[in-house]
Structure formats: structure tokens, C-alpha cells
Recover the amino acids of this structure.
């Protein structure tokens, strides 16, 4: 088994998921996958960060997986958005159920009937909860591990309720900041994009999405933040009594991140040799490889053990690979798993009290005094590595960006991401989609520094007032 | 809202689940409940311990929720055991599915087809994995939060594979030790009972269960450990190549604990005033209540803040209740939530640098010097409290136990748990069930010290060789 070149991204992704033991794709139902132990440790490390961010101002809850059809159908726009993708439970044992039960595609209609009971007065607001759950989509398109699945195993969904549209909007901005922090932590660059009004979350007032660019030039939606206004509140009767004694509808937001964050982590940072993982989330943070040398095996082993004890004291998750494999085979194995720091110790290093250090993301090797390795040193290495990973990812994304100045320039987008000036009219939006055969992701809420266009021109279709829009093939 | 007396256990349980904000029972589907933030924090604290125990020798994984009918039906005994309780997904959107999908009632049939791919040689054994997932049972009987539900939200299931029946049996014994550690940590007494052969897990060679006694005299099964022998291995073709090159079937075990552990925690330790929670798992570990006194409010507040800072430094999850409520109302509120340690500070305490301390499980109050409160002191308080809780729980259970010496004594068991001498024949087992109108839980694997019978007589039905059996009404 060897990994295909990452230039052939689709094959590379398919293989790395299996070979690095992220997921087993052989489960006997299309679109359902098994998390291997290694993959699940990575998942847990990443979600620990997400949870830490959420816990700052949200309470964790758990709502049922099964939603009665009657509730799911209450919000008419919402159900239209999900109708074709919902899995239906129709039987318990051999009995048909009185009311069909949907496997939650998302939890608005499970939660909001309860919110109507939980919220009585302004003192109950704001309400901010989240849960990390499995959700289900009957995908008929091509499925792909972590990206397009029938059981999303790790959907973090937050739901909030507020006194007014404005307060909910402040929450939208906070959510965007939280998600930025999360993706910065993972060294994953993103664009914050307002979806077209005709492509927003079903039932929302507007949707802001996080999109990143995968190595094949397709964008991947890795997070969404929705302002729901009082749309669901009206459907589910979520009212509060304000200070004056009047009853008003709450304004709501919801925002979610799924295991696509892991897909982005793998897809963006990985290389021809395997995973490249940030130190903080890597299931194995360091590997020690003793380099045997005739007659010196014992001293090499001792020095390796000493280093192992040190890493242990520092609380680092490491492997001391004393297997019979040759060093080359060991490099190969741990590179595939994305281990960020590799230590090699041979007879020369033993003599000088040093160790050869290299990082997963670069070719450079250097020597370090074992006694000088400390928490501070490791932290510095980790954050320098993250910085390099971020820069490299941004470089990759910059190469995918094109800046057509007229509609003709949209005709041969191929696997590029186009940043154009576009007005907000649906006609113009649909026109550029038709010409480019790509999807209009929407308009940049803020322009990342690595998007080069600084001045916004008029709409490249109608010449009206434009703002920066993004067109791409998307997953 | 006030809590009914715990003497009326069923009502008390129903009320405390709501009033202490463990679960909201108003979700619009029978048998499905919503975890409130407070309840979910308790759940997370308890499962953190369970996870810590499992992580010592199991890898965490995640298998799909949806099991194709074809796999579920492969093991004929197994499916017979679950057939009437399985929820079936029959439609995706408006399309009928080719193969019906079951919502996992438990994951043997999801996991074992993959084990057949994962296990190749003796070097792959033992395999030990676990997952914490939601599982589903179409319950037609009376449902009850945490005890009998249609979506079990927090099922910890471990699955292991070994080279031989004997090695799997060693794992069974280890699992029993792990579960003992877990329930000792929660101060929940248990009986380790071997289920009758005709009442074991469908597909198992034998089943060992953990049963505890609830305050109404009904037993609650709070854990099970199954030896599966090579039954499933034969069905799913799980073979390994031994050192000699021969292919052999693995022998398997599985063992599980659900949120019934939380039901036991609440039901056994709680009292007329609310929850009583062990310090280690309580979402709020301490409360500080300033006792106001005209003209001294400021110094009392200052002293309370000082204590709060101290608890904060010690890493204790506490509340400083400075609300407008009167002290009595505050006591009531935090007792309901089971807060283990209460600190009260009035003007007298300020003068002497002391604080009034009381514990949730006893009436006693005493004074302690604030400066002497340390991690060690808190740890000692916590472990003494746990010891008291355990003793009290055992006392309660002892009172429910009866020791009939003949079958006549079984006729009026009512809400007692009978320990009798019984042989292993099915006829005798079914006879005592018929007479007592209770369930034969099985035979004690080991006799807890608080079960008084030491000598085992002959079977009280047939006079054959008996061993200690337990009969009870069970949840």
C-alpha cells in the first residue's frame, strides 16, 4: 500500500482516510463509515477545542434524535429544505407507528417546541445551548468520508434565543469570532461568506458560511451561522414577557460545525507522505526513533529511554518505536500518521547528549541538546509549525484564486475559485452560475488578506453596485 | 412546587427528575426526554469516570447507528431477542429503501462484520474497543426517564475479541472489576448476579449482571457483562490465524452500562429534600451562602468573596449565592440540586475567621477556620461523605432483603428482595417465579457482606444442590 500523489486529490483522500486509519469505509451501507481508534482520537482532540470554546457561554444539552413528523413539518420553508433528505422511522418492531419519526437532519424542530416551554420572561434570555450529536441525511449523491455522509457522527450545533433581532445579530458576530478561533487553532484558512438569499438555510433570515478551499480547487463549507429572526419563534410560539409586561417573539440564531472540520484538516495539510497534523490535536505528538549501530545499541537504547521519560514528564503523547523495522520503515509509518515531531538518536547523539529533531511539515533536520528540551521549547516548536502550516495552506489557496474582470473570464474557471465583483440581484447571481458552471457561494463578509482584490468595482454582469463575491465548484 | 416524600418513590422520582432539572419530560414523543444543562453536566461528570476506566485498556471507536436488516438478522438468537423492540427506518425522503435499516438496539451486528475484516492473525488479538452512543428500543411498556426509554442517549458498550474461551473469561472478570470500581466511586451498592441460562443476553454463552436495589424494593439492572464464546464469530466469520498457521474463531465478550447509572445515583442517594450527590460528580460541588445582618452586610460579603477566591484557587465548582432570596430559600434551592458542601458566613464567623460547614447528607453543622480549608481537607470531606452515603445505601438495601427458607415464604414478597437457596434447574427457577410473582435475577456470583446468608442450603424447591439466588420485582 502506498499513497497516491496528492495531485490526484480525490484518490489521495480516499486512500489516506483508510491508510492513516481515520475511518474504515467498508461498512456495508453506502455513506456510513466507522471511526477507527486513531481517527476517533483525532476527532476527540479537535472537538475538545470546539467544546472548550462553546463552554465559555453555552450550556451543553442533549435533545432526542427522533423528531415527530408533526413538529418537523411545522415550519414550511424548513421542511421544504430537508424533505428529500430525511430518513423516516415508520415501524417499531412489527407495528407501524402512529406518527412517523424523522432522524434529526438538524435539531431546530426538536429543540424549539421545548424552548417555548423554557422561555417565559426576559429573565430567561439570552438562552444559549449546544449539543454534539449524530444527524442524518439521505444523500443520493456520491458520498465521501467526513464530507458527504448519511450519518454525520459529530455535528456540533448551537442554538440561541434573544430579545431582539439586534441582540441575535450580536450573537451571530460572536459565533463568527468563535469559529475563526477554532479554525485558526487548526491552521485552516477560511473565507467568511454571506450566502445568497436564495441559498440560505431553510427558515433563516440570512446565513453566513465558512468556506475553505481544498487542494483540488473545490470549496468545502466547514461551518455555518444562521440568523433565524423570529421565523421559528412564530411557528413554535416562543414568546417572552418583556419588562413592560408585553409578550414578544424571541429572535434566534443557530450555528454548526460537523466533522468536515476533520476533512479540511486532513485534506489541506496532508502531503504525499500522509497526514500533517498540528501538534495540539495530533493523537501522537512525537516519535522517538533509535538509530541502531553495531556495538552501540545499548547506549542508544538508554538515551532513547531517557528522552522518553522526559517527554512523559512533559505530558507529551509520544511513541518510542523500538520495533524491529528499519529506520526508513519507521519514518514512513509515522509520517503517514502525521506525527509532528520526530526525534532520532544514534551513537553520535548519545556522545554529545543531543538528539536529531525534525518536523513533519518540513525537510530540515537539526540537533538539540536533550537537557534543553522543555515545555517552552516544545510549545515554541508547535506554534512555529502551526504558523508554517497556515502559511503553506494560504499559499495553496492563493494559487487557486482567480480574479476575472468580466463574464468571459468566468467561462473557463475549471478548478479555480473566482473572486468577482457582483451585485446582490438574483438574476446576476444566477447568470454567473450559468456561465461559470460553478456555485455562487455568496459575498465576502470580510476580505482575507490573501484575497488580492482590494477595490470593489461595479457588478460584472449589470454594472450596478457590486461587492466581492466568490464562485467555485463546491463539495 | 415541592417534592413528594421519597416514601412514595415513583412520584418522588418523577418529580425530582424535573425539579432538579435533570431531564425535561415534556418532549412530544413518549419515552424520549431532553437532558437539561444541569442534568447533562452530571451525566458528563459520571461518564468522565467511566471513560477514564475504559481508556486504560480499550480504544474508543464509533460505529454507525444504522444497521442493515441483513446483518441484524444473521445471528438468529440475537434477532429473536430484539425483533419486537427494533425501530426500522424504511424511507429516505420519499423513497422506500432497498434494505431496511435498524436503529442500533446494541452494536454487535454493526461491529462484528468489521471485526471480521480487522482481525487476521493472533497478533491482532486481543481487540478491545468501546463507544458511548445512543441506542434505541421501541418500548411498549411504561417508560420512565433514565430507566426505560426509547432512546438510550448514553450507552457505553465495550466489545472485545480473544484467542480462546478462557482468555475471554479473564476479560469478563476484568470487566466486572471495572464496573465495581465505577459503582464504588458512585457509592452505589450492587449485587453481581449470573442470569439464568434462559434469561441471558440473546446470543451469549452467559450473562453476569450488576443489579442494585431501588428504594421501592425493585431491583435495577445497572450493568451487564456477556461472554459470547464463539457464537457471533461463527455467524460473522471472525477468524484468526494462530501461531501454528491454523484458522480459529475468536471468542468474544461485550459489556455495557447505560444512563441507568444516573437513575441509580439519583434514586438511591436522594432524600425528601432533593438530590444527594457525591462530591466528585456533582455539577456544583459547594455553595457559599452569606448570612446578612443589619450593618454587617459589607464585612460578610467581603469574607464570602474571600472564601470564593479560595475555592476558585482550589479548582472547586461552586456558587456564591448573593441573590436577594432569604437564606432558607437558598438552602432549599441548593439542597434540591444535591450540592455536597454548604458554607454559611455570618458576622460571627467573620470575626473569628471561620465558616459554618454542613454536608448535604447529614444534619450536622460545624465551624472551620477558613485558612485551614485546603485541597486535603476538601478531599477528606468528600471521601467521608461518600463513605456515609455508601453505608446509608447499604442500610436501605439490607432492609429490603428477606431470606425465605421455604417456598411458602415466597408468597408474600411484596416489595422485598428475596435471597434463597436454589438449584440451577429451569423448572425450579420458573416455579419460584410463579409462586413469588417476582423475577429470578439469577445466582450471586459473589456474596456482598451485607447479604446475611452465609451458608448455602439445598434448593428450596427440589432439595437438590442449591446456591444463593435472588428474586425480585425488577425495573
Amino acid at each position: 500500500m502506498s499513497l497516491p500523489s496528492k495531485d490526484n486529490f480525490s484518490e489521495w483522500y480516499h486512500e489516506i482516510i483508510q491508510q492513516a486509519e481515520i475511518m474504515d469505509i467498508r461498512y456495508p451501507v453506502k455513506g456510513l463509515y466507522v471511526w477507527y481508534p486513531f481517527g476517533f482520537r483525532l476527532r476527540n482532540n479537535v472537538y475538545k477545542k470546539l467544546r472548550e470554546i462553546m463552554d465559555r457561554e453555552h450550556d451543553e444539552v442533549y435533545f432526542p434524535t427522533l423528531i415527530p413528523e408533526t413538529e418537523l413539518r411545522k415550519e414550511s420553508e424548513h421542511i421544504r429544505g430537508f424533505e428529500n433528505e430525511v430518513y423516516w422511522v415508520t415501524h417499531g418492531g412489527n407495528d407501524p407507528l402512529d406518527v412517523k419519526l424523522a432522524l434529526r437532519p438538524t435539531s431546530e424542530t426538536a429543540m424549539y417546541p421545548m424552548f417555548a416551554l423554557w422561555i417565559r420572561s426576559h429573565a430567561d434570555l439570552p438562552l444559549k445551548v449546544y449539543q454534539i450529536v449524530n444527524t442524518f441525511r439521505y444523500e443520493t449523491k456520491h458520498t465521501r468520508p467526513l464530507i458527504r455522509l448519511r450519518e454525520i457522527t459529530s455535528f456540533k450545533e448551537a442554538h440561541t434565543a434573544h430579545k431582539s433581532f439586534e441582540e441575535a445579530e450580536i450573537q451571530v458576530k460572536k459565533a463568527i469570532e468563535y469559529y475563526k478561533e477554532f479554525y485558526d487553532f487548526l491552521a485552516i484558512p477560511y473565507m467568511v461568506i454571506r450566502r445568497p438569499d436564495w441559498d440560505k438555510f431553510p427558515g433563516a433570515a440570512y446565513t453566513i458560511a465558512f468556506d475553505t478551499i481544498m487542494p483540488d480547487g473545490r470549496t468545502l463549507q466547514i461551518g455555518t451561522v444562521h440568523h433565524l429572526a423570529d421565523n421559528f419563534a412564530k411557528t413554535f410560539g416562543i414568546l417572552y414577557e418583556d419588562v413592560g409586561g408585553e409578550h414578544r417573539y424571541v429572535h434566534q440564531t443557530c450555528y454548526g460545525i460537523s466533522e468536515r472540520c476533520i476533512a479540511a484538516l486532513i485534506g489541506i495539510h496532508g502531503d504525499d507522505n500522509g497526514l500533517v497534523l498540528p501538534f495540539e490535536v495530533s493523537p501522537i505528538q512525537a516519535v522517538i526513533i533509535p538509530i541502531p549501530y553495531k556495538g552501540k545499541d545499548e547506549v542508544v537504547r538508554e538515551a532513547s529511554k531517557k528522552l522518553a521519560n522526559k517527554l512523559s514528564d512533559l505530558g507529551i503523547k509520544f511513541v518510542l518505536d523500538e520495533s524491529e523495522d528499519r529506520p526508513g520503515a519507521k519514518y514512513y509509518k509515522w509520517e503517514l500518521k502525521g506525527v509532528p515531531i520526530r526525534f532520532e538518536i544514534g551513537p553520535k547523539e548519545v556522545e554529545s547528549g543531543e538528539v536529531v529533531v525534525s518536523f513533519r511539515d518540513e525537510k530540515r533536520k537539526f540537533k538539540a541538546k536533550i537537557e534543553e528540551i522543555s515545555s517552552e521549547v516544545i510549545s515554541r516548536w508547535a506554534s512555529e509549525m502551526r504558523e508554517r502550516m497556515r502559511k503553506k495552506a494560504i499559499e495553496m489557496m492563493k494559487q487557486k484564486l482567480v480574479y476575472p474582470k468580466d463574464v468571459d473570464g468566468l467561462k473557463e474557471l475549471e478548478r479555480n475559485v473566482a473572486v468577482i465583483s457582483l451585485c446582490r440581484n438574483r438574476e446576476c447571481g444566477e447568470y454567473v452560475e450559468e456561465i461559470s458552471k460553478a456555485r455562487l457561494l455568496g459575498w465576502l463578509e470580510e476580505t482575507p488578506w490573501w484575497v488580492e482584490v482590494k477595490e470593489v468595482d461595479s457588478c460584472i454582469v449589470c454594472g450596478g453596485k457590486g461587492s466581492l463575491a466568490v464562485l467555485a465548484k463546491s463539495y
